[in-house]
Amino acid sequence: MVNITADVPPPKMGDVPLVTAVHNSLISPPTINNSLLSSDWAVKPAEKAKYDQLFESLQPHNGMISGNKVKGVLMDSKLPVDTLGKIWDLADMDKDGMLDRHEFMVAMHLVYKALEKYTIPNTLPPELMPPSKRKDSVQAATLPGAVPVLPNLVMGIDGTKPAIPPLPVAPWIVTAEDKTKYDVLFQQTDIDKDGYVSGLEIKDVFLRSGVPQAVLAHIWTLCDIKQSGKLNSEQFALSMWLINQKLQGIDPPPSLTPEMVPPSFRTKPPVDGVIENNSAPYSNPELDMITKDIEELGREKHILETDIAQKEADIKIKNGEIKSLQSELDTLAATLKQLENQKGEAQKRLNDLKGQKSSIEKELNDIRLELEEEQVQVDNLRQQAEEQEQSLKSQEDELSSKKQELEGLKQEEAKLEHQQKDSREQLDNLTKNLQDTQLQISQAKAKITHLQEQHRQMKDAVSTYEAAISSGDAATVSEASLHIKPEFRDPEYSRIAMVNGGSPVEHNKRFIGNEKDPFSGLNGPADSGGSDFGGEDMFHNGEALQITFCHWKY
């Protein structure tokens, strides 16, 4: 071990044999045994589900769990404090005093491995690193601090590198079509046109998606790979893709998978070299022995470095514990002094309270006496209130009775008003009928007077006609008597007039003006004297004529 850093001359390799050209041959580098350096640290799906369930049970805030919550879980494992401190240092990758989902999974996985008697490594195994932070598989296999094993042996004769097949590169999960669409939105969001969008610039775009703020914060953390507080166009496109996945019901992963890492953040594979000169492998016993010695020295160095790192971690933890205990001691001393001061103040306060107690007891007795007097007054007032309440109740009953009586009187009044209205209408009808009747009586009286006058005139005319008939002298009949036209309203009179072809007056005119007596044939042939009224005079007493006129009248 003491010669590991000593300068020694280059070993004798012997003569290099001549080799013939062999096309496309490769020289494999010596293999390093990693069986003593690491175990299978990969997290199985069942274990990951268990860790996620435990993470959710601690009620994370914005996808993070504080150190106080994690402390209780870690202490329940009963592992040594130094081991738990190392686990915390490995898990808290960003050193913010809190663990996200992936960091919590790493911490719990290391705890379970420690309980299974695995040695906690000084650096986080690549299997437990977030996908975005994992190194190339070739670099991860290199021993920290190991001496390079004769790199010239893996070179060609002319110094060119052998052809190494390139590592497969996973295609980016964001398609070219989506990238183009998100680039348009990126250009609109990038206000200062610096090629990056800050949290302030992207805030409105994120909130308009409707995704919960806790999920948006987790998406920002995933996409801000370098923790720079801003995103380029590829990171922005990845964040919008994760938001769309969440809108479709797919939660963002705890960490970025290899296919999610933007192309500009992926580790570029080494440039492949092609062996153009032909070479053939050869074996040298001295070289093999030196190689084995170097490997052994490398392992011893690694063990020593691991032991040193372990001791340094133990010292660091012990120093932290001492510092914590000293701080706790100082706190307890200050607390003790504060409690002593509080004790003196409490004693002083107690003495004051005793004096206050005496005065309060005296005031209490005075108040008790006043209370008794007030109680008596309250009882009297309560009794008066009850009496007034009873009186008020009787008055309310009487008022209710009077209201009912008043309601009955109002109904009776309305009924009488209705009857009065009906009686008034009947009286108006009777008054109108009486007036109509009186008018009819007046008209009847006038008509009777008129008829009496006509009757008198007709009676005088009849007398004149009878006298003329008796004397046989028609000249005694005045012209006015011949033009008397009485009003005849008897339906029978109208019927006779229609039968005779005219009114009775016209018939009389024809009778008077007729040259030949129409009644000459009633009493036989005419007498010798040629008189048309020979024989018995049928109008000698005027009764027939009177009867005829009366019939016409009525």
SSE topology sketch:
Elements: H1 45-57, E1 65-66, H2 67-75, H3 81-91, E2 98-99, H4 101-115, H5 137-140, H6 176-189, E3 197-198, H7 199-208, H8 213-223, E4 230-231, H9 233-247, H10 285-471, H11 479-482, H12 491-500, H13 504-513, H14 543-553
Antiparallel strand pairs: 1-2, 3-4
Brief description of this entry?
This protein has 554 residues and is mainly alpha-helical.
Describe this structure in words.
With 554 residues, the chain is mainly α. Among the domains are: 169-268, Recoverin, domain 1; 456-517 and 538-553, no CATH class. It is 58% helix and 1% strand. The chain has 14 helices and 4 strands. The protein has helices at 45-57, 67-75, 81-91, 101-115, 137-140, 176-189, 199-208, 213-223, 233-247, 285-471, 479-482, 491-500, 504-513, 543-553, and strands at residues 65-66, 98-99, 197-198, 230-231. Helix 3 packs across helix 10 (285-471), helix 6 packs across helix 9 and helix 8 packs antiparallel against helix 9 (233-247). The model is unreliable at 1-39, 135-167, 270-282 and 510-554 (pLDDT under 50).
> Tally the helices: what do you get?
14
Strand order of the largest sheet: 1-2
Low-confidence stretches: 1-39, 135-167, 270-282, 510-554
Structural class of the helices, strands and pairings? Answer: mainly alpha
Write down the secondary-structure element order: HEHHEHHHEHHEHHHHHH
Task: Tell me what portion of residues adopts beta-strand conformation.
Answer: under 5%
List keywords for this structure.
single chain, 554 residues, mainly alpha, Recoverin, domain 1, two-stranded antiparallel ribbon, two-stranded antiparallel sheet, 14 helices, 4 strands, 1% strand, disordered N terminus, disordered C terminus, EF-hand-dom_pair, EF_hand_dom, cadherin binding, Epidermal growth factor receptor substrate 15-like 1
